[in-house]
Amino acid sequence: MASAPKIAIIGAGPAGLTLARLLHVSEVTVDLTLYDLDASPTSRPDRGGTLDLHADTGLAALRKCDLWDSFRKYARYDGQEFIIVDKNATELVHRRGGERAGPSDRPEIDRERLKEILLESVPEEWVRWGRHLREVTEDGKLRFDGREQLEGPFDLIVGADGAWSKVRGRLNEIEPAYSGVSGYETEIMEPARTCPHVDKMVGRGSIIGSSDAKFLNAQRMGNDSLKVRSWYACPEGEAKETLDKYGKKGTLEKILERYAGWAPEMTELFRQGDLDELKHWTLYELPVGYKWDHKQGFTLIGDAASLATPFSGEGVNKAMKDSLELAELIEKSQDPNDDLTLDQAVLLYEQLMFPRAEKVQARTMNNKQIAFGPEAPLGLMTGMLKMKAGDSPSILVRMLGTAPVVAAVYGYFWIRAQIGWAVRRLWRRT
């Protein structure tokens, strides 16, 4: 019998940890090591917001990981509540949350809780912390900062190392490009106590406002705090330069100036934020349809393979689906009754993943263009209707996504928004 394949996973995020867990519970033996830049699991505690997991991707991977019960402890079905408003705070869409278990449900979980569940499910000795990857050699070895001795060779190195993947550099020279969008994030730690009006406006899930090439949203976290973000189109580096030049207080003033003309209910999201938590974000993306020529011994999953902006909610779901498909094919390649080799398994994974990733990237790019285009927020709302209809197995629902129906819906909400805008202006004058 052939020896167990020696596999390295670079990056202990949801993608890398999902792959490690799936291989751990599989019926095959692997010699696996997972390397991560962080000094420890808790050395960088704040790594993102809340995630909605989808039935055929993220949730399917968790079921295969045999982690459904652990996930249910933290899953928030009420977090599916979703509100879209315009800059006048006129409500256009309000999807209610609730405790359900239907196939279309997309329960929320904090990214940190998801990582904890996954990390606790893999052997502790598999994970090496504090490893900053410096080089991936042609013959499948790894060099880390501060360690002259190379590790490996490995039969397979999987890049789960995100936007600036070092493993991707072994496959081709394409780097992420600036998406044209940057922004800021802050947090409201106890909104029910400090600003109940804001707490009520956001609800149990998230609220999105999009107009004038700007995007403002808040989302409920598992500890009841609110993560607040502002996105806007600007030159690369502008958000960081503003923060460096004006400091956090001055930057907040600049953010509020940018939203002049927006309803005070919306700008209140940032006014109530913890100034100490203010940070900048600059968003990058890989080209839609990005792929690489197969090279034995290397592959990519998650953002390393298909980096996109966060305007579709698909990133972690796509990443976990990558891990699910790759793990199943690796397991198949180790079946003595199957003639599939490890390299053939990786090639087949890539052939399946590329068109799936392109679809996610294209959808995300379209959402980004709509969100920061002249038709926002109504274009964003109707775009979501078409997306939902296109994904549905129901003929009736698909009909709702046809052009005439979408146009009618757009017109209805355009009139509703104009009435709401006029009423609000009259109310503020009196």
UniProtKB/TrEMBL annotation:
The keyword Secreted does not apply. The lineage of its organism: Eukaryota, Fungi, Dikarya, Ascomycota, Pezizomycotina. Keywords: FAD, Flavoprotein, Membrane, Monooxygenase, Oxidoreductase, Transmembrane, Transmembrane helix. Pfam families: FAD_binding_3. It comes from Letharia lupina. GO terms for molecular function: FAD binding; monooxygenase activity. InterPro entries: FAD-bd (IPR002938), FAD/NAD-bd_sf (IPR036188). The keyword Transmembrane helix applies. Residues 7-329 form the FAD-binding domain. This is FAD-binding domain-containing protein. SUPFAM superfamilies: FAD/NAD(P)-binding domain. The chain crosses the membrane at residues 395-415.
